[in-house]
Amino acid sequence: MATRYFGQPIKRNEDPRLLTGQALFTDDVHLPGMLHVAFYRSPYAHARIKSIDTSAAAAMPGVVAIYTATDLGDYWQPGPLLVPPPPVKDIVFNPRMQVPLARDKVRFVGEPVAVVVAASRYQAEDAAEQIFMDVELLPAIVDLEAALAPDAARVHDDLDANVNAHVIQRKGDYEQAAAQADVIIRRKLHYDRGTAAAMENRGIVVDWDARNQQMTVWDTTQAPIPIRNGLAAMLGLSEKQVRVIAPFIGGGFGPKIMMFYQEEVLLPWIAMRLNRPVKWIEDRQENFYATTQERGQVHWAEMALTRDGKILGVKDVFLHDAGAYAPYGLTVALNSQCTLLGQYDVANYTSEFTSVFTNKPIVTPYRGAGRQHGVFVMERLLDIAAKELGIDKVEIRTRNFIAPEKFPYTNEIIYQDFAPLTYDSGNYLPAMQKAVALIDYARFIAEEQPRLRAEGKHVGLGIVTYVEGTGIGPYEGAKVTVEASGRVSVATGIGTQGQGHFTSFAQIVADQLGVAPENVRLVTGDTSEFYWGAGTFASRGAVVAGNAINAAALAVRKKILKKASDELEVDEADLELV
Description:
By secondary structure, the chain is α+β, with helices and mostly antiparallel strands. It has 15 helices and 21 strands. The strands form 5 sheets. Strands 3-6-1-13-10-11-12 form a 7-stranded mixed sheet. It is globular.
């Protein structure tokens, strides 16, 4: 290869469209006869619905239709359980999934109750304000510990307690290890709830072509192919009748991998019912209660150590806030449990969590998907232990790293793939040594920090280590085509939310086929261009889709060289693509 592009800084292929306003985002889709949707959402965290009066709203100018749960008929169904729990012994699991529109009860502020369809968004919003819901107010469950009290109100009336799940996993014998410890660190740690604030909120546009029996959906989703599959099943259509396009998306961060948001379920149904294109774009206020959230946990954690800082065992009991529904099962809480030990060699570990239903928005994976909770607990305990034992906080970590000769290393805690979490390889000490050398850690601790403190400036330096899982499955694919002009087109099933796929994927193909990256046309997130895949999430896009693209480009390269070898009567090894 004359030039290697991958990994090199070049001008990004996507930037001309983005910088000139030519990139297509969901709200840029305007169709003839398009109607606009707004939602009447619950202003109450917890209430029993007595009646819903839409008569005043229906009489408002521009209103075409108003739907409540009773109008949906058999289409009113809870969403799917996206991730089933692993086979952990004695697990308790009570799945409860979100519904398209609240019917008998509202369970969080912002839960959709009615949907208004009108000629314009402002008319739909005005009409939604005229909907009246008569309710019986119920106690709102917002505190995790209070939620488990015997007399606490039930988020789901059919459950005996507000328990989504209870899981205990053990490695070794923590209690025996603690009995031999020189010091035990105990702390109660809070990890507050948060949400993503992507530059672009969620949105969906649906066009139903009744004559051709074809549906086109523009959606701010991180998983266009699973969305297509699910919508086809819900609507009684074949997958070939549904085209989902995830165009340019202004940030995803995890909440946009959720399946299925109520809006994604309802707008296709409305489009088919009215035979008109429909659009809904989430406003910023809706984003704070209608988009899924993450983070909220309370941990009671302890670490048993020897006097020289060797970890003998860790015990962690925590509560996880699932919100009102749990479509992702135990994903976030299980990630916290399984990844807490990180890169440390800990022989004894007990972890117990209770996932709790509360009257808050749904919790789904978001920016780390629970890993950061475990990392926070482990690293906080190590900092406290280092201070109490008088050991440098870098040193206490390196003393407990998994040694290179112990890989592959299994921490014995069952992960989401139904198998114990296993690290295939690692050598953590040199990485830490390089990091502290690059920031001149020793000089900062010995000279800079004392000098600054003498001046009344309290400046610290945090040390955190963790292992990040990337490239998870199950699969992705790609199609690479060389056009008659010599330009190359590439299609893959994943979408893009600002990662630079149009450049990095083009560089991969350019290296194999000898073309310039700017001559590689990439299509992402369009189910009519590529049929199968999982999506963009969990740090997997470049690893899984990138390797699929590389394999497809390599197959094309081999075909080209074989054909050229036959035509030119030259050995393939003597040919080069330029």
